[in-house]
Design a protein that fits this description.
The complex is a heterotrimer. By secondary structure, chain A is of the alpha+beta class. Chain A contains 17 helices and 26 strands. Chain A folds into three domains: 2-110, Ubiquitin-like (UB roll) (Roll); 114-225, Alpha-Beta Plaits; 298-470 and 509-562, Rossmann fold. Chain B is of the alpha/beta class. The chains are: A alpha+beta, B alpha/beta, C alpha+beta.
Chain lengths: 574, 434, 158
């Protein structure tokens, strides 16, 4: 099928709408109410185009004097979001049609007459479709000279979402999202005409697990996050394409950072993983990446330099027999950290590798997985290298019986997951590589601060078997060069200002990726390993695990790679 | 020249107690239905097509053609009878409910038979409690007599008729809004296509007809399409209920043939202008239709072509007459306020434009408007017309556009610059903010 | 708190049967709720409507708030709804409204202190041929004059 938009002919497959086709071929049609993940509403009238179809005569398509089809134009502009293309259709957008250019100006003028022009204090400014479309397509000024309508402001719709009814342009994206995607019809439009605005039923909160997505899809600043309001202008932050590690779904996200502090996390489109959405729990999970962090190595409560920590690690490991040492690997850590740990400790002679499960509730209809860990699937693959993992219960029994005397914990928290504190006294050495001050870190003799998913690079395999990469949104105190290459930068980071990531130590954690620490202690304990960068570690792992054979960091990119479904069974030993 | 002389009333005949089924039957009632069920469904639709009946709800779409759009087959389908009657100047359907409810019921049954519909919903505006009760009583009678319900007239044809009460919203007279209202949703008009004949009530094929249109269908089957098509204007034939209101001596609903001269209706049928005043303006078909000057009234006949010739349309045939003392600025202000109040708020241009129009017309009413305001009104109208899902934005823009252009001098006289010229108090200028 | 009477629950069941979906019964059930609740819809009445139809309360308040005839606050014993649209205004509706407002000392949407009258200026009632017109609760009163209106009010006071 051939369709012409703004005098350029396109070959079309399927039956997209005009708007879908335009966005595919790179023609911009401004819109507000349309969202690819929601039903069509057609209410904003911003996406109007002129559309015509070839006139059919008795002998097929009628041709004009130049041999071109005679086009029957519709009587009035049509919404491109709701109109499917058809054979020979000719479309004019505002670029080639004065009528549409005027219609777009008209719609924007209408929207703005009752919209508070409070962009200077609005969180949405800088990422606001209304602001952007007005800049590109709008009138230069307003001819409206009356007092604007007044509506409720600072309405708490729920625990996480604030609402400003005066900014609302009634696009109903949030209502449709709640009904259609979250399946939690907690929002409605109330009143009518220009008194319209969205609301919940009095006394009922917008508190469904996906509520905060309405903030992302709101095309104006009507819906804002209680956790982010007035924290930063959007252009002051860097945005890093990474993934959420809150459960086994691995939703694609952007992490937004200012002054090396994560201020918010928003979903990033990935049709195979999370479409356009993420859950609120995952979204707000970033707080543990900012707070309560282990910063700087410690031994029995005293701070150590990294050199001292490295030799202390070696001494601690040498103080017990390898056969009496157990290593807890982590479904929260990267494949690279787990692989490096397993390789390191295998070479040291360790036989006992322990893995914990973290299952809570059930998978829901959309994204939330009962498995609250992001990387069990990677451990499944590594089991082929580590040997069968031991459970937490068996570990407890082994410590109790005295067969295990030393414990190394890699970014896990056994003492917060069923391992009794009293067993600590039976251990002659407890080493913990920890991101946060959890129960295990607090009990450990040697605490090695570990880089979190917000500061490192590494891969995670989600419940569907899609391998994805985390990228550093924050910097560490002693930034590793191999991490810096992928660190998300804001304009300000590049040009230096007082809030750039390297400027002040306020929110900088003194931690290192676990693989880097292991490598630094290797020669002291007589283990020969070479861990240079996450990518190098990954390629080593890929050479040993069949299902990863053709996977590279480049292929994973920011969208991930679907591993073959037989992933678990095909793991091979080197 | 089409005139009331010799016209025989069929929609609202002067027969006492016609709302009672026995009286109705005595005067040919339900004969049309009997005729219909003796024909094939297609023959009934063809008869209606042949009659030339055009919808009486405002848009004037050919009824038979509309019926023929319903797909064939076993799909569940619905009829929605539009008795929302909210257009200012329109008060005809309530007369049918009150004085000839069975004619409407009969027409509804004929439509259901022709289109294979098993359920018809009668949407009646919420204020019409009295008429809902009258219709319900008549409907109960018709059920008892076996005209409605199961195995109608022993022909194995089943149809239920359900009355649905509105609750005060002009937009529900728009057919797709009416469907959403019936479905219990917020009554926002739907994007078309798909049209109701494909995807209507509850996703099923649906036809929406006005109450008066369905009453006409009963007359057509009773009297025949040939008889019907000879009444009134050739291309827009049939009886029509003229609702005449405003400054006339005898306001009311009058049945006559289409194509009557507007003059006859005002001066003869409705007894002329009150208090011997002169005519200033007429809105011929409910508040949305463009207003006419006295010169146009002289020429106008009440049918689609006759009214198009003078730049307006038939609408609901609700004729609003205004005498020489009428303040047209205030009249327009009332209408603009109405459309602002009734905009559902779904589409941007209508939601925002109706309020803006009202505010600017309000400046004219207050005497603080300027030439810029006048020009701006026309530009806002242009940004509203044809830019929305339904026609409410057009309905709001047309009265403004036509009143301020056709009666320009009245609006110019209310501009602040002209007030000053006339030596009026100029202190208002501060209010205008100019 | 609001809960439907047994009798009204039966009426609601009958209304539900009239439509292919339960959602469609929301308007008739809101009417029943308003009637039972003294001619207005409290939040509790709207919630009860949602519950009895298994709909989200947000949806039901979205519907209820759209229509003008569902009263969102208490109204007096007599709800005086005077049309001020075009045909009524041509024949003096505005004068009637001023008269009424002065007489009862209330304006649009207000209720007299004794709870007897609520006045609302309403859009076209479909009484253009018998203008000016008003509705007192459900009843139409047409061809109004100031005198006729005074008489009507006198009749109500008794």
């Amino acid at each position: 099928m051939k369709v012409t938009i703004d005098n350029i002919e396109h070959e079309v497959n399927g039956k997209p709408t005009i708007l879908e086709l335009a966005s595919k071929v790179g023609v911009e049609i401004p819109h507000f109410c349309y969202h690819p993940g929601l039903s069509i509403s057609g209410n904003c009238r911003m996406c109007l185009v002129e559309a015509g179809t070839p006139k059919m005569g008795p002998n097929g398509v009628e041709l004009d004097a130049d041999g071109k089809p005679v086009i029957m134009w519709g009587p009035k502009p049509t919404t491109s979001c709701s109109t499917p293309v058809s054979e020979g259709m000719v479309v004019k957008t505002g670029k080639t049609s004065k009528v549409i250019e005027d219609a777009q100006k008209g719609v924007l003028e209408f929207i703005l007459i009752n919209h508070p022009l409070d962009c200077p204090i609005c969180d949405q400014a800088g990422e606001c479709p209304l602001q952007e479309n007005t800049f590109k397509f709008g009138p230069e000024g307003s001819r409206f000279e009356f007092e604007k309508n007044h509506k409720p402001k600072r309405v708490e719709l729920g625990p996480n979402v604030m609402f400003d009814a005066e900014r609302c342009i009634n696009c109903t994206r949030c209502v449709r999202f709640s009904d259609e995607v979250a399946k939690a019809p907690q929002l409605t439009v109330i009143q009518r005409g220009d008194h319209n605005y969205i609301a919940t039923f009095p006394g009922i909160e917008l508190d469904n697990p996906y509520a905060m997505n309405v903030i992302d899809i709101c095309p104006v600043g009507a819906l804002t996050s209680k956790h982010f309001r007035f924290k930063s202008r959007v252009w002051e932050m860097s945005e890093t394409d990474t993934i959420c590690t809150g459960c086994a779904n691995g939703c694609n996200v952007k992490m937004w950072v200012k002054n090396n502090e994560i201020l918010r996390q928003t979903p990033r489109e990935n049709q195979a993983v999370n479409q356009w959405w993420m859950c609120d729990e995952g979204r707000l999970g970033f707080k543990s990446l900012n707070e309560n962090r282990v910063s700087g190595p410690r031994f029995k409560g005293s701070e150590l330099s990294w050199e001292a920590a490295s030799s202390q690690l070696a001494d601690s490991l040498k103080s017990v027999q390898a056969s009496e040492l157990a290593v807890v690997v982590s479904p929260f850590a990267t494949l690279e950290d787990n692989y490096a740990s397993i390789k390191f400790f295998k070479k040291l002679g360790v036989k006992t590798f322990v893995r914990y499960q973290h299952v809570k509730g059930q998978d829901d209809h959309l994204l939330i997985k009962a498995d609250k860990t992001p990387n069990q699937a990677a451990l499944d693959l590594l089991e082929g290298i580590a040997g069968k993992f031991t459970t937490g219960e068996k570990l407890a029994a082994a410590i109790e019986s005295g067969s295990i005397k030393g414990l190394v914990v890699i970014e896990e928290n056994p003492f917060g997951n069923g391992l009794s504190d009293s067993l600590k006294s039976k251990l002659s050495i407890l080493v913990s590589f920890s991101t946060n001050w959890d129960e295990t870190a607090k009990l450990a003799d040697l605490v090695i601060p570990a880089a979190s998913v917000a500061e490192t690079i590494g891969t995670f395999i989600n419940a569907k078997g899609i391998i994805q990469k985390v990228r550093p949104a924050k910097v560490l105190k002693l930034q590793n060069r191999s991490l810096m290459r992928e660190t998300g930068l804001s304009r300000w980071d590049k040009h230096a200002w007082k809030y750039d990531k390297w400027a002040q130590p306020t929110h900088v954690t003194d931690a290192k990726p676990t693989w880097e620490v292991l490598e630094s202690a290797a020669s002291a304990v007589g283990v020969e390993v070479s861990f240079k960068s996450p990518e190098q570690i990954f390629s080593k792992a890929a050479s040993e695990i069949a299902v990863l054979k053709d996977v590279t960091y480049e292929k994973i990119g920011t969208a991930g790679v679907q591993l073959t479904s037989s992933a678990k069974t095909e793991a091979v030993l080197s | 020249m089409i005139s009331l002389a010799g016209y025989e009333k069929v929609i609202l005949p002067d027969i006492p107690n016609l709302n009672q089924i026995a009286v109705y039957e005595k005067h040919g009632g339900y004969e049309g239905l009997k005729k219909a069920v003796s024909l094939s469904q297609d023959d009934v639709i063809n008869e209606v097509k042949k009659s030339g009946l055009r919808g009486r709800g405002g848009a004037g779409f050919p009824t038979g053609l509309k019926w023929s759009f319903m797909p064939k087959g076993d799909k569940v389908r619905y009829l929605a009878c539009n008795g929302d009657e909210g257009e200012p100047g329109t008060f005809k359907d309530r007369q049918i409910f009150e004085f000839n409810p069975h004619l409407f019921i009969e027409g509804t049954l004929i439509a259901c038979y022709a289109m294979g519909i098993k359920t018809a919903y009668v949407y009646i505006r919420g204020e019409y409690v009295k008429w809902i009760n009258i219709l319900q009583a008549s409907l109960d009678e018709a059920y008892a007599k076996g005209y409605v319900g199961q195995n109608i007239l022993g022909k194995g044809f089943n149809t239920d008729i359900v009355i649905h009460r509105g609750a005060g919203a002009y937009i529900c007279g728009e057919e797709s809004s009416l469907m959403n209202s019936l479905e219990g949703k917020r009554p926002y008009p739907r994007i078309k296509p798909p049209f109701p004949a494909q995807v209507g009530l509850w996703g099923q094929p649906t036809t929406i007809n006005n109450i008066e249109t369905l009453a006409n269908a009963a007359v057509i089957l009773r009297k025949g399409a040939d008889w019907y098509s000879k009444i009134g204007a050739e291309k827009h034939p049939g009886p029509v209920l003229y609702g005449i209101s405003g400054h006339v001596n005898k306001p009311g609903v009058y049945e006559g043939p289409t194509g009557m001269s507007l003059k006859e209706l005002i001066y003869d049928v409705a007894g002329g202008i009150k208090n011997g005043k002169k005519l200033k303006a007429v809105i011929p078909g409910g508040s949305s239709t463009p207003i006419l000057t006295p010169e146009s009234v002289e020429k106008a006949t009440m049918d689609a072509d006759g009214l198009r010739a003078v730049g307006t349309s038939m609408g609901t045939a609700g004729i609003i007459v205004m005498d020489e003392d009428t303040d047209l600025v205030e009249a327009l202000h009332i209408l603009s306020k109405f459309y602002h109040h009734e905009s559902c708020g779904q589409c941007t241009p209508c939601r925002e434009g109706t309020g803006w129009l009202e505010k600017i017309v309000g400046k004219f009413a207050a005497g603080t408007a300027t030439q810029q305001d006048y020009d701006l009104l026309l530009k806002i109208c242009a940004n509203m017309e044809g830019r929305t899902v339904c026609a409410l934005a057009d309905a709001a823009a047309w009265p403004v556009r036509n009143t301020i252009t056709r009666f320009k001098e009245e609006f110019e006289a209310r501009m602040i610059e002209n007030k000053n010229k006339a030596g009026w108090d100029y202190s208002m200028k501060a209010v205008s903010g100019v | 708190m609001f809960s439907f009477t047994k009798e009204n629950l039966q009426r609601i069941e009958a209304e539900k049967k009239k439509y292919p979906t339960v959602e469609s019964a929301v308007m008739p059930v809101l009417w029943i709720a308003q009637e039972q609740n003294g001619n207005w819809l409290s939040e509790a009445a709207i919630k009860a409507t949602a519950d009895v139809l298994d709909l989200s309360p947000a949806h039901v308040i979205g519907v209820a708030s759209f229509y003008t005839m569902y009263n969102k606050q208490p109204v007096g014993k007599y709800h005086l709804q005077v049309c001020s649209n075009i045909s009524c205004s041509l024949l003096g509706a505005k004068k009637l409204i001023h008269h009424l407002e002065n007489k009862l000392a209330i304006t649009h949407g207000e209720t007299t202190q004794d709870g007897l009258y609520t006045f609302s200026e309403v859009e076209c009632l479909g009484s253009c041929g018998t203008a000016p017109a008003m509705q007192i609760n459900d009843d139409y009163h047409e061809n109004l004059t100031i005198e006729k209106m005074d008489e009507l009010l006198k009749g109500l006071e008794k």
